[in-house]
Amino acid sequence: MIAGLLFAGAAVSLAASADDALKEAQLLQQIGRTKEAIGLYDKAIQANPKSAVAFLGRANSYAELGEDERALKDYNEAIRLAPNNGEAYRGRGDAFRRLKQSDRALKDYAAALRSTPEDPDIYLNRGTIYYSMKQYEPALKDYNEAIRLNPDFADAYYNRGNTYMALENPAKAVEDYDKAIALDPEFAEAYYNRGNAYANLERHDKAVDDYTKVLESFPKAPEVYYNRGLSRFRMGDLDKSVEDYNEAIRLDPKDPEAVYNRGLAYAEQGKYDYAARDFTQVIVMLPKNAEAYGQRGLARLHQGRANDADADLKKAYQLDPNVRKKLQPLVDEAKKTAGKPEGTSK
């Protein structure tokens, strides 16, 4: 009888210990002390190996630390213990998504939605998988549902905007980026992608404004300077375009596209020595780039270096016969003005 009482008392003590450890672990996880939380989840699981909540909490903690393989083991156990736990399916789906196991992630998201069909985050995350698989219509459907469930979901508007861009509908994309920015005025990625959408719509003044906004937060982003340089070139603001390409190249000296486009801007300014130098640099980086040979040939024609120009043009046509059709009108025009002084307009 006494032994029975002692056994019952030990069981109560273990249960209390497991419950206390679990509550403290959840609190630590909420305030960002994730590694400490894992230690307490360990204790809770040791005290109660059938606690699906403890396995789920530890799985989420591992996921927060980027340890998805360890998280998966705990999600599996949480699901085994509580087969209808939508949060566990969602967490495991997120882990599979990050591990690029898209099919498994899609299955788990479907299971999660059976338990929690009103969770907009699941639709958002599933939409990102469809997007990555270039299944844009299902992605749109999921983003639409995420927005229906949460009309103030900036990430959903942003992702839907990206999907419209992939579907070559930049006007619709701009509408969604507008909404994302209205909800989150510091959403730099939305400004950047809206800038790209405006550039696609030939609204380069708007694109420049958006790229400039991004640079306030990310002043060392070469791709933003590059894109702003492209839009300024299209607007005819060649000096500013060159400045942007200079900064893009300073930040990323190995980017041949920035060097090539700076060469185009120099050529448009009539600065053919600078243009030829840039196209030579591109050729060093990309020895089989037909466009660079062709543009250097044009620059050399304007410099009065006819033999060198002919060699470049011949090389360009050998590398890509289609370049001839694009370049020939420019070659004919260059031959008419060949040898003009540096800085003279074409």
Question: Would you kindly provide a written description of the structure presented here, covering whatever features stand out?
Answer:
The protein is mostly helical and 346 residues long. The protein has a domain at 15-117: Alpha Horseshoe (Serine Threonine Protein Phosphatase 5, Tetratricopeptide repeat), CATH 1.25.40. It contains 19 helices and no strands. The longest helix has 29 residues, at 2-30.
Would you summarize the structure shown here?
Helices cover 80% and strands 0% of the residues. The protein is mostly helical.
Annotation keywords:
346 residues; mainly alpha; disordered C terminus; Serine Threonine Protein Phosphatase 5, Tetratricopeptide repeat; 80% helix; disordered N terminus
Radius of gyration: 30 Å
Mean pLDDT across every amino acid position: 92
Distance between the ends = 107 Å
Strand fraction band? under 5%
What is the CATH C level class of the domain at 15-117, in words?
Mainly Alpha
CATH topology of the domain at 15-117: Serine Threonine Protein Phosphatase 5, Tetratricopeptide repeat
Q: Which structural category do the helix and sheet elements fall into?
A: mainly alpha
| Name of the CATH architecture of the domain at 15-117 | Alpha Horseshoe
Q: Tell me the number of helical segments per DSSP (H or I, 4 or more residues long).
A: 19
- Major sheet: none
Quantity of strands, as a count: 0
